[in-house]
Amino acid sequence: MDVIKCFICHQQCKNSILFLYTAPQGRAHGSSFAHRSELRQAKRIVVKLGSAVVTRGDECGLALGRLASIVEQVAMLQNQGREMMIVTSGAVAFGKQRLRHEILLSQSVRQALHSGHNQLKDMSLPVLEARACAAAGQSGLMALYEAMFTQYSTCTAQVLVTNLDFHDDEKRQNLNSTLQELLRMNIVPIINTNDAVVPPPEPNSDLQGVNVISIKDNDSLAARLAVEMKADLLIALSDVEGLYDSPPGTDDAKFIDIFYPGDQQSITYGTKSRVGIGGMEAKVKAALWALQGGTSVVIANGTHPKVTGHVITDIVEGKKVGTFFSEIKPAGPTVEQQTEMARNTGRTLASLHPDQRSEIICHLAELLTERKEEILAASKMDMDQAANAGHLPPAMLKRLSLSPAKLNSLAIGLRQIAVAAQDSVGRVLQRTRLAHNLELEQITVPIGVLLVIFEARPDCLPQVSALAIASGNALLLKGGKEAANTNRVLHQLTQEALSMHGVKEAVQLVSTREEVEDLCRLDKMIDLIIPRGSSQLVRDIQRAAKGIPVLGHSEGICHVYVDTEASVDKVIKIVRDSKCDYPAACNAMETLLIHRDILRTPLFDQIIDMLRTEKVKIHAGPRFASYLTFSPSEAKSLRTEYGDLECCMEVVDSMEEAVEHIHKYGSSHTDVIVTENEDTAEQFLQQLDSACVFWNASSRFADGYRFGLGAEVGISTARIHARGPVGLEGLLTTKWVLRGDGHIAADFSEQGTMKYLHENLPVTQTLAGQRDSN
Amino acid sequence: MDVIKCFICHQQCKNSILFLYTAPQGRAHGSSFAHRSELRQAKRIVVKLGSAVVTRGDECGLALGRLASIVEQVAMLQNQGREMMIVTSGAVAFGKQRLRHEILLSQSVRQALHSGHNQLKDMSLPVLEARACAAAGQSGLMALYEAMFTQYSTCTAQVLVTNLDFHDDEKRQNLNSTLQELLRMNIVPIINTNDAVVPPPEPNSDLQGVNVISIKDNDSLAARLAVEMKADLLIALSDVEGLYDSPPGTDDAKFIDIFYPGDQQSITYGTKSRVGIGGMEAKVKAALWALQGGTSVVIANGTHPKVTGHVITDIVEGKKVGTFFSEIKPAGPTVEQQTEMARNTGRTLASLHPDQRSEIICHLAELLTERKEEILAASKMDMDQAANAGHLPPAMLKRLSLSPAKLNSLAIGLRQIAVAAQDSVGRVLQRTRLAHNLELEQITVPIGVLLVIFEARPDCLPQVSALAIASGNALLLKGGKEAANTNRVLHQLTQEALSMHGVKEAVQLVSTREEVEDLCRLDKMIDLIIPRGSSQLVRDIQRAAKGIPVLGHSEGICHVYVDTEASVDKVIKIVRDSKCDYPAACNAMETLLIHRDILRTPLFDQIIDMLRTEKVKIHAGPRFASYLTFSPSEAKSLRTEYGDLECCMEVVDSMEEAVEHIHKYGSSHTDVIVTENEDTAEQFLQQLDSACVFWNASSRFADGYRFGLGAEVGISTARIHARGPVGLEGLLTTKWVLRGDGHIAADFSEQGTMKYLHENLPVTQTLAGQRDSN
């Protein structure tokens, strides 16, 4: 889209968009959209606002904030070139509020208020008639809409309809052409039932054919109108999240993300909504009617304070909000079903004998080499597509590629994991005799269901799968689009290996179409999320993952501190390796701290020369800059992760000050001291509070493989569970098993007959799992 | 406050409050409030809306949603009986939007739009003059305010002022009495500068005395007006969070929660705000001027989408929003300073020799018995206060009380922890030789800063403190109001013990006045939150603790499954103990699952008889109910934590079905099987995925002390870090220490000269910490 400046403020403000009347590419009307992502193409949209959305919940006044944000969204979509229509409630509420004012005044309540309010309780209160309220409120409601839409340079028009307007062909034609004309003129029609004159609904007259639906409430009005006007999308907002398969709040109620008409029998309807007429059943009927007429429908909550501000635009952007009604059921399982399958099969995987899990991994290792042609063909496809698209940088392309050598070393790594798998799940960590015949064991168990999100590195898939299988965890994998073909083949091989012990479904590959944000919402079903990718990916996931722990790190601001007593050779080697071996890695050095006494020594010159030779751009910290006559550009922040051939240099007065600096500006990832003084080194190692602390070694050693953990699922800078490079151990948790003989706690109370022994027992090398499954 | 029904809806709707004109107790004007919590008493409040709040950020239209929610909050506070005044911006923005419309029409842009829009780029655009915009916008802006406030039955009045109106005494008197009269009539005055006629600001005329402040912008206008009208509180909303000690975004910028005028020199101001005139410095000057005049001031962000809906009411409720300006600096440190002190001293605590930490705990144990009179006297004070207030249930009173016996057993427990402390921090978990002279160690280290929130149980304080000291963690403690006196004494003793090794400040007691929600916001400073109290407390904290891990469990839905092959005796004993020993405990049984074959057997009758005798109310699960002719009332949900002498009973067909039921409805806390069949038992123990799984033992054994962990900080149902009862181990994390001799990663690459050895080394019993600190 072209962007030109705003007429008024001469900047690129939101209004600029008004001048870019480029309508989204519509589609031939007649069939509804098959997938949420297609909703972006919706050109003509009806937004239905239930009374719970428009009013403050007690029908005694409008919810202005909500209304305003809805107007903002509708105006924005209209200004994108879509044709927006609003079916609104709220006239009665507005009228009540207005008439109430009149009554207050006419009863001279103001005086009463100031003279003492107790007598108010005794005053007789008039009951307001709803139709009178509607009549009195409609004009005010429209004035409010108009005032609000004016703020977005959008014109509105009022259209009041009754049931009869749809039953009489001529009237329907008139209504249709009026609305068409309004839409053509870029005006938002605001439609309501003509409540002041509306006839009582005809019983049982609806749902007997495409052209027969009574307008009993605004749900059916909106549906009728959407079909009549051939709208692409009907968004029905009320105070419920959407559809559940049983009344929400009951034990088994599950939210329905996408509803297919064929599934209708599986729904149990609850009671009516609190405010307004039209319960959930009426909403669903209206939605199905609209769907049959070719209009897609989303039923969503328009009252949730956190989402109201973007519920409509989110829906149009294809996000998982509310329940989407679709006629076309996709072939594969939904991600919820995949998670369910993974969890169930995962439990079987966890109960296998360790040897069996080991066998699966070995078999997968074999398949990687045996079926390498298949894998490499898929990889070539991905590489070709990436090359054609031409958007991947060379480093990314390198990570995307697979070679026979890579597959071989992958297989070797997998076999190491297979060995480690023998001693993972069911390992007894401690045994305690609490009392005679009452023995406690703490044993290792899998965490449950893992979600691993990785970017363009297909070799990640078998590695992570092997770690999950070895630790008995179910696994959901979401890979990047770039490696889709390779990932599919590798996942097939993984499932093939899993099949040998009947646990094929324990590892699931999630469609690349699924949004990470939506996956993070499965908080009742996923136990741990492990993002493997850019720090942006990690941060996004940490933000989105409400309630699910995330294992990983978003930043790696690693330091190398050069002490006065450092060996020149080691400094040069370690600084070079830490920065230059792989500058984009999270364990690369970002800040070089040097002791003040090193300034203006040959060592200092050698460091600078080396960095120049390696083409490392230096940014000066404030103290470093102050010591130099001509300093490099000052670092914008001492907390920068350059991720490139750049680093910050800063001066400190002592080892203690280096520790302080790192505590203040570091990310607790990996930090290094270079010194020949063992005391200084040991103090640094002890005082510094980072996941990895190194003495005379490059920061680049912070890595699961280099640490001898076989493989890693990531590096954690979190302070609980796992810290630093995370291998198999990080994917395990524990459970406490107590075996008694009818023991009860009351016997151990002060008045009781028994005493705790708390005797430590030797931990035998037999796995708990082996005893159980043999 | 009395609640009577609404005039219109005849329910207790939000409007009812209008009729209860009971003003909050005001205070003698003259001095500002000393603490945020006092803001609740503010009777007369000026709300200043900066242009960034009122406009959409580009000054090309109003932010209606924000405006509406501000109106809602102001109306609510007004209806509570407060006197609200609004100082608003936005007339220019409204006018621009309006004039823009005119220009569009007059230039016949609509036609141009439909004929093709490229020529628009070449059209000459008129520049709008701000004063003309203000004139054109003011009327529309007021109409909008009026329409919005009408929704809340609140009347508004427009007041336009200029600098001169304050400088001329007569004019000032007139303005004053006009506003007084409006407030008396319960009308919200909406004040703006008369931009159409406003004279240019006089240079350097402000801040030279109480009566001299120029109205250069709405900040100074609001301050001037607040003081003139003797307002209690001025809320200044703009697009910044409040005050930072350096420009926000720089490395060291710290948010200032409470600003004391004496601290002014410590502030560095950044650039002006993006929208509107009046940068941060002007805001602070205006705020200080108002403060000097006796009006409290809060500067806060009115544009943050997540908080806009309640920013004003939150401030008036005393929540930590924005920067609060106060003249009176409280004696003690702020909670941020306490956390800072705890973290810094905690690092020293962690670097002590294990024996020293052990000594501190032993000393604390001694103090508990030596100084018992002091403790018991404080405890008596708390008990008396609770008895006088009469609001604590007997069980709560019992938990609140301390006795010499309780103190003795506390001291014994502490000495056990002191022993465990010898082998906690700095323990080597694994050692690996990566290469010649390159050795890796994984050692235990403290987590960092813990925040423990506990309710009315003062014995919790020394226990948790001892566990934190033993594990080298800094600790923030927040106890309940009921035990405030006891907690204070116990904390003093803890600090006395800590003083012996110079780490007094490692354990901090947070004022009971601090809101839990506010503490949870210290996410950069606190590493782990441990709530000890009701499941409601835990849930609240889990919700509030964004970004900080929470260790604990919100629910304990424990099951006992009675198998066909169960011993009658053990069933009766275990079910009775599990349910009746302490029904309110989280490890008490909530659901009793019985095998179908037990129905109508003598065992079944005995179970029912026992439960009747113990007065346990039974709720029937759906299957159980279906088997009985006359069943007890059906359970509303199979996921209920009764926490009382009540339980649910349900029937299952097999052990496998019991496991399935528990997986579906349980909370993974503690679940029990009663059977004599070892195979069945072992399968249950293996298949069931709960933190604690017991065979023939009461669920009540799930407890840190009973498990032999010494003491517990809580029971975790989380799946990572710690699971089940959590003792010392759960307060530790690890760090990786690598000692090399100039090793670099590049040497180990494919082209390199070195190979990884990955040789496991024996773990010596020497603590890493001992080597370092000796």
Automatic annotation (TrEMBL), chains A, B:
GO biological process: L-proline biosynthetic process
PROSITE patterns: GLUTAMATE_5_KINASE (PS00902), PROA (PS01223)
Residue span(s) of domain Aldehyde dehydrogenase: 334-603
GO cellular component, one term: mitochondrial matrix
Pathway given in the UniProt record: Amino-acid biosynthesis; L-proline biosynthesis; L-glutamate 5-semialdehyde from L-glutamate: step 2/2; Amino-acid biosynthesis; L-proline biosynthesis; L-glutamate 5-semialdehyde from L-glutamate: step 1/2
EC number: 2.7.2.11, 1.2.1.41
Subcellular location: Mitochondrion matrix
Predominant subcellular localization, coarse grouping: mitochondrion
Reaction equation(s) it catalyzes: L-glutamate + ATP = L-glutamyl 5-phosphate + ADP; L-glutamate 5-semialdehyde + phosphate + NADP(+) = L-glutamyl 5-phosphate + NADPH + H(+)
Keyword terms: Amino-acid biosynthesis, ATP-binding, Kinase, Mitochondrion, Multifunctional enzyme, NADP, Nucleotide-binding, Oxidoreductase, Proline biosynthesis, Transferase
Every Aspartate/glutamate/uridylate kinase domain range: 43-301
Matches recorded under Pfam families: AA_kinase, Aldedh
NCBIfam families in the cross-refs: P5CS, PRK00197.1, proA, proB
Record text on subunit structure and interactions: Can form homodimers/multimers.
Role, per record: Bifunctional enzyme that converts glutamate to glutamate 5-semialdehyde, an intermediate in the biosynthesis of proline, ornithine and arginine.
Name of the protein this chain belongs to: Delta-1-pyrroline-5-carboxylate synthase
